[in-house]
Amino acid sequence: MAISKSKEYTTVTEVSGPLMVVDNVSGVAYGEVVEIKTPSGERRRGQVLEAQTDKAIIQVFEGTHDLDTDTTAVRFTGETMKIPVSVEMLGRVFNGTGTPIDGGPPIIPEKVLDIHGAPINPCAREFPRDFIETGISTIDGMNTLVRGQKLPIFSGAGLPHNELAAQIARQAKVLGKKEEFAVVFVAMGITHEEANFFIRDFERTGALEKAVLFLNLADDPAIERIITPRLGLTTAEYLAFEKDMHILVILTNLTNYCEALREIAAAREEVPGRRGYPGYMYTDLASIYERAGRIKEKKGSITQMPMLTMPDDDITHPIPDLTGYITEGQIVLSREFSRKGIYPPVDVLPCLSRLMQGGIGEGRTREDHADVNDQLYSAYAEGRKLRDLVAVVGEEALTELDRTYLAFSDRFEGEFMNQAIDEDRSIERTLEIAWNLLSMLPESELKRIDPECIKKYHPKYTKA
Amino acid sequence: MTQEGIISRVAGPVISAKNMRGTRMYELVRVGTERLIGEIIGLDEDIATIQVYEETGGVTPGEKVIPTGMPLSVELGPGLLGTIYDGIQRPLDLIKVQMGDFIKRGVEVPALERDKKWDFTPVAKKGETMGPGDILGVVQETKTIEHRILVPPGVAGKVVDISSKGKYTIEQTIAKIKTAEGVKEIQMLQKWPVRIGRPYVKKLDPSIPLITGQRVIDTFFPVAKGGTAAIPGPFGSGKTVVQQLLAKWADADIIVYIGCGERGNEMADVLREFPALEDPKTGEPLMNRTVLIANTSNMPVAARDASVYTGMTLAEYYRDMGYDVALMADSTSRWAEAMREISGRLEEMPGEEGYPAYLASRLADFYERSGRAILHGKDEKVGSISVIGAVSPPGGDFSEPVTQNTLRITKVFWALDADLANKRHFPAINWLQSYSLYVDHVKDWWQKEVGAKWGEMRNEAMRLLQKESELQEIVQLVGPDALPASDQAALDGAKSIREGFLMQNAFHKVDTYCPKEKQYRMLEILLKFNELMYKAIQKGAPIEKIREMPVKDKLARMSTVPDAEYQKQFEEIEKEMAAQFREMEG
After folding, report:
1. CATH fold of A83-359, please?
2. DSSP 3-state of B515
3. Of residues B57, B234, B259, nearest to A30 (C-beta)
4. Does residue B118 sit in helix, strand or coil?
5. Buried b vs exposed e over B426-464: b needs ≥16 C-beta within 10 Å?
6. What kind of architecture, by CATH, is found in domain A369-462?
7. Would you list the domain boundaries of chain A?
8. Dihedrals φ, ψ of B356, to 5°?
9. Whether A26 and B299 lie within 8 Å, measured CB to CB
10. How many CB atoms within 10 Å of residue A1?
11. Measuring CA to CA, which residue among A218, A1, A224 is closest to residue A98?
12. What 3-state class would DSSP assign to A190?
């Protein structure tokens, strides 16, 4: 089909919400990029959402304001959305559509890549096992992050998820290895203030040189958010799998992304799924999250840390819910602990790291890590259960052992969970604190720990 | 078929094409210049609606659609075991060889290797009259699985030629049968449309348990060979871990594992682990009895729909040889969502929560392809397919349509519970919510094969757990110390069953698989302790003393006693138990 792709159409028949309909076209491909010239001469970009024999439905990334059905011109490029990539992107800041906004020169591309990428063949995947030390006890000790994992932070409005993410970006390291490490930071609909916080933090710690920033801010067009994470991930894939770097991708805030997705679905009058979000939101989110991982015989890796705010702190809301079904665990922040002044306010009970088992143990962290983690969880859960009970019956009704559990969970929150915003705890230190706390309990209660590990690490024996 | 259609509309995975008169529903077509694989899912005059199993970016109206005259089918024959396929049975390892680390589209690779020669041993004799399901010959597919080459459904007559023992490729003719319609040449390679169940003679009642080595499943909520089970649970409750445990340890001959719309790293984990793990029955690598189907969440959504049918057809093929097959689908919710997505693109009238109105009937059709059955063929082979489907209810809310429609069909319900998972009680199967309708069917088997008190013990343990939940409500109001000693003993007893029996550590080398005899003994000992405890309390022994008994520690650690030593050690524990109670009372 030889079709001239340079032809300009001025046959826009309908503009509604983020969408635009062009008639009397021919040879328009599904998913191709269009260039739009507004009546005032401004250029914008869009993408074909539905291609028919003589009609195309287009989503416009930079907003549809000022478009008309008279003089607006549309040119179909015949290409899918692409981004030029290069190692020179490190240290640079781009807007949500990939244009540099730091005043520097445009990127001289080493390669031009399709932003939608392609799924990694499950056969080519290397199972992620390299422990990343974040220096945060609740993560390292109880929800270990490994290279190639996608581990989101479920937060709520007003909780310190930005501080936590910045701390992780600052402190993350793999023990005993000096390797090329970089951060790809993707902002979707966050405020200038939040973006500045990250930029300042990256500048202060010198991390900016090893970071690529894509910023779609709150006052940028919402539809642009659909492509921003894909630009970031395509860059990450290039750096990881062609330039052997270890990439940490921070995506914030997925809630804004999902809102944009809903906006488009509503404009297209699609049949809505739960709470008005489109039925394909799972698939769409998967096309972002699944781009984390490792590949056999490649040095680099992509680790993802998406952040989202749970509307009304509701973990069953479709956004955290679908995310949790795709990602390999979740770190959940809690308002209750934040109010108590605990930082980071990670509520360990609903947290999970699915790849933890492979990343810990002898030769990775320490042989007793898995058992200690199990024991901490069950002891702390027991303490929390008793705390509810005390609220009803009072502490007097409890047994001696129950009171020990109560004391344990108080100290657990104060000593293990709580740490300073610049405190970088080694895994040994984290386990040491854990053992100190566990030693409050009678030894017969440590049922989850291998007796040999108890002999080796229990303070009672190590001090003797 | 020379007629070609023309694409008139492209919207995501669904396209429309005109000039398609003469094509049939569910016919396979090739779409566009890249010959993408698609399937007709609707016909209106000469316009066909087609779901495409690959990415449709770049497909342009005006391009061609070529009908193939065939429904979507799978290839059957030796070489399936140990392979990992995508949703439409393309081997992923070969795709990797052709395309590299990322899956691009338009790839064409045969499902089964064409050049490989297999050792064929004939069973049928020249001149013999044979019908569908009769064994023509056998191929040793892996060390433990003998692949039986059967007369395909619909073929019957006299064998006029059969190849002698030797090496053949799957495309070579190995037998000729003279049927009413003429001589039919038969190869090892056979094909079958995925959406049609393979025939059998008669379904039997499931009465033999599928032993999984998981205590809470085998003893409390057993699934029978040929049965169906559903595992619904919110994220993080351990659905996938349970599914993988069953794939590892279930005593089926063949495992078909469908990763439907799930994580890529999980499939990588299976691929890493299965070849290294040994089948407890045969000592062979688990991979040698497993077929994997991986359609991860970022792979095309239409192929997710196909993947469950592909898996089921492979399972039926091995069942027809007389094997017990277990099929795991993780997760059926993703399949249902794929249906919803396609249905939405077709602008069909939605049912509940946007799912299509045919959701219930599709699920029922799928689960009904399970069962233990007498098969076609002279020797009256019996084979079975057990289906275990994971369900991922949004927000962990079991009232949603996929869970509810699944529960109407399946006979076993393993309810995964986020609270248990948060306490790291795994498997997080809630013992009060779950049920199995096979308990009475498999009771005879357990009592004959393992121990006469199985049914009685199971009821006693369940009664205790039920009692615990009632007492917990009182404890919430008055505290545990206010309860009478006998009730406190009941709480202690239930706790020991919860922690010592129901909980099982999937990552512990011994505890990951618990043989059925060991399960029986463990429960027997735990219940024996409870019985002694009651008696002691009735005689006035203080409960604090019982709690401090040294033997309690050993009871709690019974699950990790190695399989070779447990009989001896358990006997000692019983003796210690009796002695310590005597001492206390004495």
Report:
1. Rossmann fold (3.40.50)
2. coil
3. B57
4. strand
5. bbbbbbeebbbbbbebbbebbeeebbeebbebbebbbeb
6. Orthogonal Bundle (1.10)
7. 2-80, 83-359, 369-462
8. -70, 155
9. no
10. 12
11. A224
12. strand
CA distance A218 to A192: 7
Gap from A296 CA to chain B (nearest CA, Å): 8
Instruction: Judge if pTM exceeds 0.80.
Output: yes
Tokens 């039926």 sit on residue: B316
- pLDDT per position as a tens digit, B479-507: 788 889 999 999 999 999 999 999 999 98
DSSP characters over B517-575 = HHHHHHHHHHHHHHHHHHHHHHTT--HHHHHT-THHHHHHTGGGS-TTTHHHHHHHHHH
User: What end-to-end distance do the CA atoms of chain B give, in Å?
Assistant: 92
What distance in Å separates the CA atoms of residue B221 and residue B582, rounded to the nearest whole number? 35
User: Measuring CA to CA, which residue among B489, B495, B507, B510 is closest to residue B564?
Assistant: B510
Inspect the interface and report whether the beta carbons of A282 and B11 lie closer than 8 Å: no
Place of tokens 């970089």: A182
Q: Give contacts of A 353-372 with B, CB under 8 A.
A: 354-355, 357-358, 370
Q: What percent of chain A has pLDDT over 70?
A: 98
CA B97 – CA A163 distance, rounded (Å): 44
Question: What is the C-alpha to C-alpha distance for residues B434 and B237, in angstroms, rounded to an integer?
Answer: 14
Kindly state whether B99 is in contact with chain A, defined as any CB-CB distance less than 8 angstroms: yes
B390's enclosing H/E stretch is: strand B382-391
Place of tokens 């303070």: A459
pLDDT value at residue B347 = 84
Tokens of A130: 């390299």
d(CA B6, CA A464): 83
pLDDT > 70? residue A5? no
Q: Answer yes or no: is pLDDT of A91 > 50.
A: yes
| pLDDT (tens digit per residue) in B186-223 | 999 999 999 999 999 999 999 999 999 999 999 999 99
Give CA–CA dist B183/B405, Å, rounded.
Answer: 47
Pairing of strands B64-71, B5-11: antiparallel
Q: How confident is the model at residue B170 (pLDDT cuts 50, 70, 90)?
A: very high
Residues B381-402, mean pLDDT to the nearest whole number: 93
Peptide bond between residue A253 and the one before it cis (omega within 30 degrees of 0):
yes
DSSP secondary structure string, B455-511? HHHHHHHHHHHHHHHHHHHHHHHH-GGGS-HHHHHHHHHHHHHIIIII---TTSTTT
The two three-digit tokens of residue B246, written as one number: 């069953």
Task: Name the token pair of B111.
Answer: 């499902």
* Per-residue model confidence (pLDDT) at position B429: 96
Please choose, from the candidates A289, A249, A237, A246, the residue with its C-alpha nearest in 3D space to the C-alpha of residue A147. A246
* Gap between the Cα atoms of A39 and B404, Å rounded: 54
How many Å apart are CA B450 and CA B215, to the nearest integer? 14
Contact by Cβ (8 Å): B381, B218:
no
pLDDT at A3 over 50: no
**Structural fold of domain A2-80:** Thrombin, subunit H (2.40.10)
Question: Which of A1, A32, A370 lies closest to B507 in CB terms?
Answer: A370
CA B476 to chain centre: 40
pLDDT band at A127 (very low <50, low <70, confident <90, very high): very high
Chain A residues in contact with B479 (beta carbon < 8 A): 389, 393-394, 397-398
CB-based contact, B423 to chain A, within 8 Å = yes
Average pLDDT over residues A4-25: 86
Quick one: pLDDT at residue A178? 75
> DSSP state, A276?
G
The reply to whether ipTM tops 0.90 is no
Torsion, Cα of B294, B299, B303, B307 (10° steps)? 20
Contact across the interface for B294 and A122, Cβ inside 8 Å: yes
Q: Using CA atoms, how far apart are residues B155 and B282, in angstroms rounded to an integer?
A: 35
